Amino acid sequence: MPLDADSFDLLLETVRRYVAERLRPLEARVADEDEVPDEVVREMRDMGLFGLSIPEEYGGLGLNMTEEIRVAFELGRTTPAFRSVFGTNVGIGSQGLVIAGSDAQRAQWLPRIASGEVITSFALTEPGAGSDSASVTTRAIRDGGSYRLSGAKRFITNADKASLFTVMARTGGPGAKGVSAFLVPADLPGLCVGRPERKMGQQGAHVCDVTFDDVPVPAANRLGEDGEGFRIAMQVLDRGRLHIAAVCTGIAERLVADSVAYAQARSQFGKPIADFQLIQAMIADSKTDAMAARSLVLDAAEQKDRGEPITLEAAAAKYFASEAVGRVADRAVQIFGGAGYVADYGIERLYRDVRLFRIYEGTSQIQQLVIARETLKRGG
Ligand code: COS
Predict the structure, then answer these.
(1) How many Cα atoms within 13 Å fall on the side-chain side of residue 62?
(2) Does the Cβ of 361 fall within 6 Å of ligand 1?
(3) Ligand 1: distance of its center to the CA of 161 in Å?
(4) Is the whole model's pTM more than 0.85, yes or no?
(5) pLDDT digit string (tens) for 194-212?
(6) What are phi and psi of 182, to 5 degrees?
(7) Which of 87, 109, 272, 279 has the fewest CB atoms lying closer than 10 Å?
């Protein structure tokens, strides 16, 4: 049964309280230990967070896009590493299966993805194929009833925890049409996951290299038709970009709230710094950025729920929201002053965390390119 309005409101309220009371107090610990505690992962499983976007018939909550992004707004109000625990299962790790999987593939994997028993990863990026994702060189060569998969993937989120990868590999000639998508269980021989990278921020969320050395992948694990992999990846990313934009919006809103609280509590020249117009200007700009991001994201989500394409809208939402949260975080550091630069207040941590949003799931420059192409196609 789909969630009715009351049950959805209850879910939203539960997530809001969980973020405020349980996750926010753990932020510094997660950053220090570069790990989300196991008990938190268990609680997330129990709350159904791994299955937010998975259809109910496979054990998920079956949220539509608008509902999913309203949950993502709430999750954005804490360190992004928490969302990353189940982020791939909700987004890029599961949606290839939801969009293009056969009944048998969905029945085999989706219930365990929804419960969080299986963690998923999306393996598109390679050392030589970042923004130019149609140039992947990981190769899948048909060999009777299976494919032999060889190559290297880079910066793969949650790879160290994943038991299932959606891998984009070349089965044909050059370019997008030569790419197919595969469901690759992590325990196949020849699959090797590297050590988590050391990063600027988002400690607790891990990215690793994954290499494939003649990995035998059953032909039944191909997602969709031969040569459909790039299109599947782009559809997955359209959706993923919107979700990321919602997370950016949530963080921007949290930073506005933190900035306001600090500006009201901190006094200089005999009065709260919130009384000074130069501080107010920064608060006004950050509030406007957060409001505009929310509107763009909600608009795009509603459009998706009406069954319309959102390639342009998702790119615009991601472009604006990720750039906006960068500006908001920068102003938050400025409003906090010295306290914004030292670790104890957590503002410098969020400043570093949000930098990634302008890069992953498509850089700002790729979003600009997508927006421009679509606008030219539509004639305005
Ligand atoms: N939905 C459905 N199909 C899409 C699509 C989308 N959003 N975007 C592209 N396609 C299709 C195109 O229609 C085209 O098919 P036809 O040739 O049948 O018309 C095919 O895919 C190739 O598209 P295109 O010619 O636009 O490919 P490009 O090589 O020019 O690449 C960009 C397009 C740059 C937009 C793409 O490579 C991209 O998004 N790069 C960034 C990748 C990324 O986000 N990486 C982050 C890491 S993953 S977390």
Answers:
(1) 10
(2) yes
(3) 28
(4) yes
(5) 999 999 999 999 999 999 9
(6) -135, 145
(7) 272
Name the residue with the closest Cα to ligand 1, atom 49.
361
Measured over the CA atoms of residue 182, residue 187, residue 190 and residue 196, the dihedral's sign is: positive
| pLDDT at residue 3, rounded to an integer | 79
Tens digit of pLDDT for each residue in 68-80? 999 999 999 999 9
Residues written for the chain: 380
Burial class (CB in 10 A: 0-12, 13-18, 19+), 147: buried
Catalytic amino acids? 361
Which residue of 126, 133, 303 sits with most ligand 1 atoms within 8 Å of its CB, as the best mutation to test the pocket? Answer: 133
Rg (CA), the chain: 21
* Rounded Cα distance, 361 and 369, in Å: 14
CA distance 318 to 314: 6
For residue 179 and ligand 1, the question of a CB distance below 6 A is answered with no
> Where is pLDDT greater, at 286 or 2?
286
